[in-house]
Every structure is written in C-alpha cells, then in structure tokens.
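Human: My hope is that you can spare some time for a protein that puzzles me. I am handing you a single protein, as its sequence and its fold in token form. Could you go through the record with me and say what the backbone is doing? Take your time, and here it is.
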Amino acid sequence: MSADPQQAPTELSDQETAALDAHWRAANYLAVGQIYLMANPLLTEELRPEHVKPRLLGHWGTSPGLNLVHTHLNRVIKARDLDALCVWGPGHGGPAVLANSWLEGTYTETYPDITRDAAGMARLFKQFSFPGGVPSHVAPETPGSIHEGGELGYSLAHAYGAAFDHPDLVVTCVIGDGEAETGPLAASWHSDKFLDPVHDGAVLPVLHLNGYKIANPTVLARLPEDELDALLRGYGHDPLHVSGDEPAAVHRAMARAMDTALDRIAALQRGAREDGVTERPRWPVIVLRTPKGWTGPAEVDGLPVEGTWRAHQVPLTAVRDNPDHLRQLEQWLRSYRPAELFDERGAPRPEILEYVPEGARRLGATPYANGGLLLRELPLPSLDTHAVTVDKPGGGTHEPTHVLGELLRDVMAATADRRDFRLVGPDETASNRLQAVYAASGKAWQERTLPVDEDLDPHGRVMEILSEHTCQGWLEGYLLTGRHGLFSCYEAFVHIVDSMVNQHIKWLRVTRRLPWRAPIASLNYLLTSHVWRQDHNGFSHQDPGFVDHILNKSHEAVRVYLPPDTNTLLSVADHALRSRDYVNVIVAGKQPTFDWLTMDQARAHCARGAGIWDWAGTEDGSREPDAVLACAGDVPTLEVLAAAQLLRRHLPELAVRVVNVVDIARLLPSGEHPHGMSDFEYDGLFTADRPVIFAYHGYPWLIHRLAYSRTGHGNLHVRGYKEIGTTTTPFDMVVGNDLDRYRLVMDVIDRVPGLAVRAAAVRQRMEDVRLRHHDHIREHGVDLPEVTDWTWEG
C-alpha cells in the first residue's frame, strides 16, 4: 500500500463530491430497483403495477450506507492502487453489493447475460429474490464476496482471517450495529491483538450505526459518543467519526476519514516493517452514522420510515394494490435522477464511473475473494517419515495426536517463507498434544509478554483464543482467501460453531456449482480430548454429537473420519489437508493408543474406508461368520478387539468377523453419498443375515440412521454413547454406556442363535466382571488390572 503519512486528508472539491454522489445515487437507484421492479427499469414510461414484483423481498435499510462505503472505497483504491477486499457484514444488504458489482462491470463479466444496459438492468432487477434468481444476501454468487452474511456475527473474524499472511491487503469490514450486538462479533474485536503488522495485512472496520434492527433500536447506536469511543479504544482502536444526513457533507467527511485511516495504516505498517517498532499498533476504525433507509420514503401511510426500524426491509409494501404507494415508489426512484446516471441505452454514464478502479483492483474482481485462484499445493512431508513402527498389531502404543503434531510441525516449517498454513484452536494446542508445532512457529501474540509466558511470538502462525467462534471465523476467512489450515478443538465444545459450519457448508455447496469459483482448501477439524477420555472433566465435557450434526449436511461437501490408531490418523490427516471444497471432521484420541496397522496397511484401510481385520477375527473362510463385531473410533476399536479376544478364549468354535470403519459415510448407500457402499458391497462386508454388534464412538442412533435401508438392518445392534457420563475412570465410561468388551461379548451370546443356552456360563462370567468392576473402582479409584494391563494376544 502506498501512502504519504504526511499528506493531509483529501478535501473534496465540489466537482469531486458531485461525481461521488452520482455514483452513490446510481447504486441506490439500482438497489431500490432490485427490491421492487421486474420491468420498466429506466422509468421510460409511467410506473404501473405490472412493473412491480408480486412478492417484495429484500432489505433496503442498510443499502444506502453500504453503497456509500463502496463508493468511497472505489476512490481510495484507485487513488492509492490498493489491494483491497471488503467484507459486508450486513449480509442482507445484497442489493447494494450487486448494484456496485454491476456498475463496475464485474457482474457482467461473471454473468454475461446481465449486460450493462437497459436489458441487463431489467434482468438484474427481476432476478433479485425471485424464483430461479439470486438470493437477497451477499451470497457466493456475488462477485467479490467471501462472506454470506445471512447469519450475523462473523464478519470481523472473517476479515481478520483474510488479512492474516496477506501483507499488502487492506480488508475493510462493514459491521452493522445489529450484528455488533452478537457474541461472536464482540469477541472478534480482540483479533487486533493477533494481527502482525509485519507479515499480515490490515483490517479497517467500519461500524455502521443506522440506529435500528428489525424492530428495535441498537445498543451501540444509542450509546453516548464518549462511551462508544471508550469502548472502541478499549478494544485497541482509534475511532474516526462520520455522521450526518446531508449527502455532500457526508461525502466530504467520509473521504477525510478514509484517507486518514489509510494513512495511519500505512504509517503503522512502515513503522513495524522498516523502523522496527514492536509495540502493538492502535488501528483506526470508522464509525459511520447515517439514517436507516437514507434517501428512501420519509413517511408512509402517515408513519415515519426513513431513520426508523420501518425502513429495515421493504418500506412500501402494497405498491401493486395501493395507488399512493405506487406513486411514492415512482417519486422515490425518480429522486435519484436516473437520466443523469444512465444513458439512453441504460449504460452507466462515464462520469459516474470516474472513481471506479480497473481490472483486478475492482472489489468485485479481486482475486482475494476467489481464493482458489491464489491457492498453492501444501508441502506435506512423506507419511513414512512420521509413521510409527508396527511389528505386530497391538505391539506398542503412541499418542496419535502427538505424532500428528510432529507432521504439522514439518508443514509449518515448510511454509515458513510462503506463510499459507495456520493452526487454530481455543487455547488447546498443547492440551491436544500438538505442541511439537512450536518448534516451527510460536503462538501469534501482539500484547505484552511476561517472563513466565511460553511460545508467544508476534510473528507466529499458531492461533489460540478462547473463543471457538473467533477461531472458526479466522480459519474460514483464511481458507476463503487462498490458504490452508486446521482447527483443533475439544470434541464437546466444537458444538459452539455448529451454526457457523452450517453456513460454510452451504457456501461450499453453492460454489461447487459456480464454474468461476476456484476450489479452496478444505475446512479441517481435529476433534480430540473426546468423549471417552473426558472421564476427569466429567459430564460437561462428554458430547460426541458434532459428527451427527455434520452428517446432516450436504453429503457432497462433508466427510467424517474416525481413525483407530496413529498411522491411520496420519493417513486421514494427509488426505484431508490435500483435499478441496470439503469440511473434514477427524475424531482421534490424544491418550496412548495401541498401534494396530502399519503405514502401508493404514493407507489401504483408509482408502477403503471400512474393511475386515482378518487378523482380529476367528473366521477361516470356510463358512459365513456367526457374528460380526464392527467398530468405529479408537476406544470402540479397543473394546471390540478385547471382546474378540475374549470370544476366542471362551468360545473358540465361534466364527467372528471384525470390521473396522474409518470413514463413517461408507455406511450410507452409494446413491446418497459419494463414499457410500452399494448394497452388494455392504452385505459382503457385514453380511445380510448375521448379527452385527457395532461399537461406535458417538450416539448409536446415527449408525442406525445411516444403515436403515440395508437388508440386514434388523440384525444390527449398536452400542455407543447414551448420554451417560460423570467424573469417573476411563473404563467406567464405556461400562456405563454398555460399550465395554464384556457387554459386547454378552451381546454376541444374546444374538447368535443357540448361544444363549450353550454359552450361559460365559455370559454369566462377563456379567460378574462388570459387577466386580463397579466395586473395584469405588474402592481403589482405578480400573481393574485386567483392563489397565490388557494387551492383544493375537
């Protein structure tokens, strides 16, 4: 970014003010037209009811403010030759962003049928919130957008995620005052404590206070200015105020504020990059106060509208039926003087485009908003470098996530110069055993440090803040602008971002259908500190339901993996980090876990997604198995193998098949998920008529839901987490939820025809151990020796 820190802020001349105002009026006209019109776009004839859409949808109230910001961003981008991106927080302000994209030409370049003339304007108007058209939000279909905005709270985190490791980028973020009341937005203000002025770009928040939400006043708009300033200064920002309702005065004030803010940003970056300044910058923020629905109808049906909550959506609602409303709409549209803005063909007149940048400098054309164009392959190390040696199944143990942390350390080191990989998480990197990454990158931190602090680094790429919302928003913004990353989180608390990941999955589903959107790196979750090893933290930390939530979403975009040991975790992580346009959820433990598969076996097993572990079962191929023991997840796998060992010892004549599932979507029919199995394949693996005892990591009904249509579903019996938890021992967690090895043996005996009588004594022994376990842990505080000292004998 080029700027002279000594230059005085621009004072617009009357001619410059008029040119900016003309562009703003044109954008306002186009925004109103999108909400209301389906014909007669230039008002070349008197407005009639049939020119108006039968269903009026959209949000006018925020649009004039967004148009003002867009107009003035155009001026500074062109004057300073900026790399710029804008995140439009009031996502319902779609009409404004679409209007500006059409004016600057990027909309026509993206959608050639929406030409920059009267015919194209008519199509632009009609398609908005219309069947077969485009959404009312700043959606994936909108050029220049990385932020859908249909759900409020995430704009500022997205903006910072976009700025990380893009040192030449200025990200403006328009924050609506309704959005500013949300918890995720409130936490996001602290992102400036993590923004590195040397290696990162800058974020310029524009807090747009138009006073109202749907039906109520907004908190920040009603604060006295000195109190609001104190709040923003407390967040680490220096506020610049722009307010008013007289357009010329507001244009001049906005130009001054933009220039002042960008000059300060340039000076702060130069101080850090050239002069060695190390103290945390105080970045500017613009506080913009304009009336809600500015330039719209002042009054409708005797009630005030402009500057009130009534301007939020559609100010005139009965235009087709009420002649007064139709007359007001025509007066409103003509107040922008469209003949001055568009020529006789309907094209924007050259003078209103005077300050619009060219080429990729246009906000709708910036490659930062189509991050796949900037994406490079991630330099991943060979898995053989990190694979653990497995001489025989169960012959050793490792902490899977600790080994993964060593792989991530190498990724951090390999991207040290290009800076396009980040690890985010809510204060849990070391807790989740990923601390090896600190050898390659510390934790981002711009605040003061104390001698007791460890691994803090003003240039670090490990991001920790105790706000899952902020972590999610940072990573989404980072991925959407062309980089890679991983989100590590305790399994129970990733639910905090349930709604955020919904939005990201919807974004991916839509962009997959837009040929101009280049694929981005997948959003990867590592969920550890999971339900079965949260015995010390208790019931509050025990919830495996995020997987259920994810598998409800668009199957083309979601993947869920439950690797049973270290090498399978490495294989799954390698696959996820290489993938594009997915949300990958990996659930893996951090505690010492038996090593079951060699690296080659792990690769093959993960590629299959589900398979028979013939070394673990007792079938010899001469006949169908009597029972199938299936498992998904590290602890369920351990319990199934222990159960298989008990069955081999006590019922050696029984033919038992052991099946491990690492890719949960494999259980779905092939027509419902790209990873699903055909019925033929499923029946070959699980059989069509033999009892299947399935030990699953999460809620058991998920497995039933995935496999409900299979031939053998009536023979499927699933054990999993039944919302029974407390502070107890690790094995007591599985016993309490009937997932333990002894219960699994009892389940086989109960379901294989003829065993109930023949193996009654074995079943009784299993029940006796469970009872002994109950008394033992309450006396000694630890699990039974035969559990803690168990090894695989195969």
Notes: The chain is about 35% helix and 15% strand. The first helix runs from residue 14 to 36. Residues 1-6 have pLDDT under 50 and may be disordered. The longest strand covers residues 169-176.
